[in-house]
Amino acid sequence: MERTGEERDPPKLREIAYDSFTRHLLANAVRPGQFVSQRELVELTGLTLGAIRELVPRLEAEGLVKTVPQRGMQVAHIDLGLIRDAYQFRLFLEKEAMALFVETASDATIAAIRAQHEDILRRAEQDGASLDLAAEAQAVDWGFHDTIIDALGNEIIAKAYRVNSIKIRLIRQELTRIDGLVVPVMNEHLAVIAAMETRDPALAADALARHIDSARRRALGLR
Questions:
Q1: pTM of the model
Q2: DSSP letters spanning 38-71
Q3: Could you list the residue range(s) of the whole structural domain that residue 53 is in?
Q4: 94 and 182: one domain?
Q5: Separation of first and last alpha carbons in the chain
Q6: 152-170 pLDDT, tens per residue?
């Protein structure tokens, strides 16, 4: 029997609610550690209370919010445990993805990745890193890592990575924004890209691991 439109809509509405929440979270409309009510999320997202209520269990399961008795929902709090766990999870996934990527990606794909980074680096060195260029560099940074994961063609890994990526981006926004780091981050990426161009999976994976460890150390204030 064909389902009615009313029965088909809720899953789509849940995805809209999730996308809206994470978008506002990454835009700093809600902050890590902040307490927020379901009613406030309704006002923030413009969605129905029903959609928000259905969203909350998913956010709790993914560790993006937790319910605190007598206080309500708290957005994920950034602490040493979150930094450690998020970067370790990222390292495990990206090292394996990189090893496969360098064996399967076309020369044109890797050349395009290099060209993006060299363009950002050239402009930053010539004119300085404006806020607009920093935002562009951040998009190139995230896009680089997303490309490696997406090339696996594995939906389970991609979904798990995206949730962890939200946590990584929250950590960066609070502790290690790319503002002021455009040149060193682009240089780190170019070192990884040089390893990728050798087509040696172990060499590329090790280069990526060093970059991720460098990012982790920045988040911990160790460099």
A1: 0.83
A2: HHHHHHHH---HHHHHHHHHHHHHTTSEEEETTT
A3: 5-75
A4: yes
A5: 61
A6: 999 999 999 999 999 998 8
